[in-house]
């Protein structure tokens, strides 16, 4: 397809996003940016979170992953369901009861200032690195298939993408994102379904016949029963559960959207609805992945070595110009819905948890200035990380994102679990050391697991180990006085 025509659709779609941003950011204040004025309809939040949860990584990595792992990823998705139940019934009531803007404020109330700073910094590192990986994957595809045609170097392609997101989020913040995510989720899901239809048509069979062919293929494998494998079904399920708890329930970006709902009941309806929709959407992605590989096999198509590039190569080069447009719009939708929330949530966490904006700045004008400086600085950081990741390539990006999460979100899992399920207070000055020690120990165990544990390989369950190590080390720094007032009040 012509890069010029593709670029035109890119500009048209981006213009639509800016139109929504214009109407949602009128008369915006700091409260609008941070909490959406607590007025978001729960069904919009639920639907829009699909796009934010999946992102450009899922859009390309999950279909590509089917080639090497079949449908085993679905066991992780089933684990997600259990994780969302925990979030809706345990974490959301806590956050609404404490009326939090940043969820890491809980750590300050439960432990103290050092813990809040540690939790916020863990999130800032986790989300910055993970989101930069996601953005790199999307920007790379847009660069290769559109901007490179016009002689634009990669660093400028990345700059243009980042600036677009900065401009439509810096004023309206989370309120704008709730509405743009709704649009972007719709386009992303539609593009995946349309891709399956196009593949069926090219194979001259119906969609139902294609699905039947998938169910009889080697790709239609959900269970890996090898306990030494990182994709063993129980490891996948438990990993999915805890990945959800930390990457949604303990993640400022995802929870910031939930906390814009008017009431706890609305937020819980959002979470339960969202989890069901996500289950269905992930199955569609897996069906797409199997469709791509069956199509390649039956047409003798040579596939790229990187599984992340299977979907874009077929959609943009093989299935015709209409599918190319659909793919680009779906990809942009996935990219925008992930990146815009990242910038907003990183800004929120930094100004609330690190800068203590309400305590250090006594006027709305000063708070707004601090927010804008942080918003632009976060955007610059993400840009630099995208350029850094452009120097490397390797396994599927979704694999890398979950691996990073295992190290960086693990201490958050341990800190929140200890706070919720024990009544102990701790020598709080040691918490930052534990937050560093736990991932380091987990890393050592991971790289030596095959030789130390009879061939056992850690998968995403490394996150659980990391959280458990944090929990145990917190027990080692318990104070003599065994109870704390905040925890008692939360249990009442």
Question: Can you tell me the CATH class?
Answer: Mainly Alpha
The fraction of residues assigned to DSSP E strands is under 5%
Q: Classify the fold: give the CATH topology.
A: Sodium/glucose cotransporter
Average pLDDT, to the nearest integer?
82
- Residue stretches low in confidence (pLDDT < 50, at least 5 long) are 487-492
Task: Tell the overall outline.
Answer: globular
Oligomer: single chain
| Number of H/I helices | 21
Q: If you compute it from the alpha carbons, what radius of gyration comes out, rounded to the nearest whole angstrom?
A: 22 Å
Number of domains: 1
Q: Find the structural class using helix and strand composition.
A: mainly alpha
By CATH, the superfamily comes out as Sodium/glucose cotransporter
Q: Can you offer a commentary on this structure?
A:
76% of the residues lie in helices and 0% in strands. It is an all-alpha fold and 492 residues long. The protein has a single domain, classed as Up-down Bundle (Sodium/glucose cotransporter). The longest helix has 36 residues, at 264-299. The termini are far apart. Residues 487-492 have low confidence and may be disordered.
SSE blueprint:
Blueprint: H1 3-24, H2 30-35, H3 42-69, H4 73-98, H5 105-110, H6 113-145, H7 154-169, H8 174-202, H9 207-215, H10 233-249, H11 252-258, H12 264-299, H13 310-317, H14 321-354, H15 357-360, H16 364-389, H17 397-408, H18 410-421, H19 431-452, H20 462-475, H21 485-491
Keywords:
76% helix, 492 residues, globular, disordered C terminus, mainly alpha, 0% strand
């Amino acid at each position: 397809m012509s890069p010029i025509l593709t670029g035109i659709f890119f500009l048209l779609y981006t213009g639509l996003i800016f139109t929504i941003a214009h109407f949602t950011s009128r008369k915006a204040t700091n409260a609008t940016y941070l909490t959406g004025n607590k007025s978001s309809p729960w069904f919009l939040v639920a639907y829009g979170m699909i796009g934010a949860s999946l992102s450009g990584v899922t859009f390309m990595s999950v279909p590509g992953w089917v080639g090497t792992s079949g449908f085993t990823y679905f066991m992780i998705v089933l684990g997600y369901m259990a994780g969302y139940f925990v979030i809706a019934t345990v974490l959301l009531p806590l956050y609404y009861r404490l009326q939090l803007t940043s969820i890491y404020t809980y750590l300050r109330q439960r432990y103290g200032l050092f813990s809040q700073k540690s939790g916020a910094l863990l999130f800032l590192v986790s989300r910055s690195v993970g989101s930069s990986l996601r953005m790199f994957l999307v920007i790379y595809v847009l660069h290769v298939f559109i901007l490179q045609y016009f002689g634009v170097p990669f660093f400028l392609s990345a700059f243009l993408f980042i600036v677009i997101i900065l401009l439509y989020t810096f004023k309206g913040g989370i309120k704008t994102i709730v509405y743009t995510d709704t649009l972007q989720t719709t386009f992303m899901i539609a593009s995946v379904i349309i891709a399956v239809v196009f593949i069926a048509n090219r194979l001259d069979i119906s969609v139902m016949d294609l699905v039947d062919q998938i169910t009889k293929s080697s790709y239609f494998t959900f269970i890996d029963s090898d306990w030494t494998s990182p994709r063993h079904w129980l490891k996948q399920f438990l990993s999915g559960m805890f990945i959800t708890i930390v990457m949604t329930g303990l993640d400022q970006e995802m929870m910031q959207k939930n906390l814009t709902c008017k009431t706890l009941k609305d937020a819980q309806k959002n979470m339960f609805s969202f989890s069901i929709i996500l289950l269905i959407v992930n199955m569609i992605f897996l069906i797409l992945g199997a469709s791509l590989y069956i199509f390649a096999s039956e047409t003798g198509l040579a596939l790229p070595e990187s599984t992340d590039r299977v979907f874009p190569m077929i959609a943009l080069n093989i299935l015709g110009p209409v599918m190319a447009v659909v793919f680009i719009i779906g990809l942009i939708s996935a990219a925008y819905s992930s990146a815009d929330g990242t910038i907003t949530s990183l800004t929120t966490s930094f100004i609330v948890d690190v800068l203590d904006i309400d305590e250090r700045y006594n006027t709305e004008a000063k708070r707004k200035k601090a927010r804008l400086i942080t918003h632009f600085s976060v955007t610059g950081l993400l840009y630099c990380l995208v350029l850094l990741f452009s120097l490397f390539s390797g396994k599927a990006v979704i694999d890398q994102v979950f691996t990073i999460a295992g190290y960086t979100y693990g201490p958050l899992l341990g800190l929140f679990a200890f706070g919720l399920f024990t009544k102990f207070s701790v020598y709080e000055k040691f918490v930052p050391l534990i937050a560093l020690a736990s991932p380091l120990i987990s890393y050592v165990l991971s790289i030596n697991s095959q030789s130390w544990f009879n061939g056992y390989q850690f998968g995403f369950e490394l996150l659980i180990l990391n959280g458990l190590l944090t929990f145990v080390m917190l027990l080692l720094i318990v104070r003599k006085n065994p109870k704390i007032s905040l925890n008692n009040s939360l249990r009442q």
